[in-house]
Amino acid sequence: MPRQDGKVAIVTGGGRGIGYEVVCHMARLGVHVIIGGRDEQEGLAAVRRICEQYKEAKVEFKKLDLASLQSVRHFAQSFKERDLPLNILVNNAGVMLVPEGRTEDGFEQHFGINYLGHFLLTWLLLDTLKDSGKCGLVSRVVNVSSSAHRIGEIRLNDLNSCQHYSAHAAYCHSKLAQLLFSSHLHQEMQSGGFPVSSCAVDPGMVDTSLYRHLWTPLRLAQSVIAGLLFRTPAEGAATVLSAALSPVLEGDCGGGYWANGHRDVTTLAFDPQLQLSLWEISLQLLGLQ
Q1: For residues 231 and 202, what is the distance between their CA atoms, to the nearest angstrom?
Q2: What is the arrangement of strands in the sheet containing 88-91, beginning at the earlier edge strand?
Q3: DSSP helix/strand/coil, 163
C-alpha cells in the first residue's frame, strides 16, 4: 500500500485481534488512527505497543461502547468537535455467540452491537465523511462482516430475536443486517453524488477472541483446530486493509462485498426492498426519523 499521510481513520474494536492489526498497518503508513473501544485498559495498551514499534505513529484511544447508544453519540460528538477530517471508518468491533441478553437500550446484543451501534456511528459521522472525501479520493466505510451472513435471515417483525433465541442464529442475522446496510449506504452515497463509498468484507476464519463464548469442549477443540487451519489476525486484516486503503477501489470500483481479496458478486443480488425496509426501521429504532 502507498503512504497515507494526512488521512484520519476510526477503527472500532482496534485494541485486539483483526482491528489491532488494521490499526498497526495504518499507523505504519502514516494514518492518524483513533481506536474506538469499550475496554480502556486494553485500548491504551494497544496504543503503547504500536507507538513503541513505530515511533512516528499517530494513534489514540477513545472510549466507545457500542452496546450504549448514548456512548456512541458521545464518541461521535467528541470526534466532530475536534474538527478533524474522517477519511476511513472501519466498523470492526463485534460479539459472537454471547448468551441471550439485551444492550443498555433494550436490543438483542448481536443486533445491537454488531449492527445497530455501527449504523448509528456511521450515520452520525456521515457528514464528516462526505466533507472529507473528494473526486478520485473518496472517504470509505468498511464494514467487517462474515460468511455467516449466508445463513442469516432478516425478520423485520422480530429483529430482537424474541420469538426464538439462538446465539448462532442471532450472530448470523446481525452480519446479514450489516451487509444489507453497507450495500444500501453505498447506493445512497452514489445516487446522491457524495464522495463516500461503503463496502463489506469477510476476513475469513480468524483465530481471535470472538470464539471465547463457545461451549467449553468446543472452545478447546477450536483452539487446537485454529492453530492448524485458521488465519492469524494479521492475515485476516489483509482484506480489511485492502478495502480501506487500496487505490484500485476508487470511484466506480468501490462498494460491494469482498472475501479473500476478491469481490463476491453472488451477494450483490439482495432484495433492494429488504435493504430499504431494514434501513427505514433502523432509523426509527434509533430515533433518527
Answers
A1: 12
A2: 58-63, 32-37, 8-12, 88-91, 139-144, 196-202, 257-259, 262-263
A3: coil
Grid coordinates belonging to 108: 438483542
102 has a pLDDT exceeding 80: yes
Q: How confident is the model at residue 266 (pLDDT cuts 50, 70, 90)?
A: low
Quick one: which of 137, 143, 224, 221 has its CA closest to 180? 143
Q: What share of the chain is helix, strand, coil (3-state, %, to 5)?
A: 50, 15, 30
178: left (phi over 0), alpha (psi -120 to 50) or beta: alpha
Pairing of strands 196-202, 139-144: parallel
* 171 part of the active site: yes
pLDDT in tens, 11-44: 999 999 999 999 999 999 999 999 999 999 999 9
User: Among residues 240, 143, 250, 123, which one has the least CA distance to residue 199?
Assistant: 143
**Residue tagged active-site, from 20, 54, 115, 171:** 171
Grid coordinates representing 165?
433465541
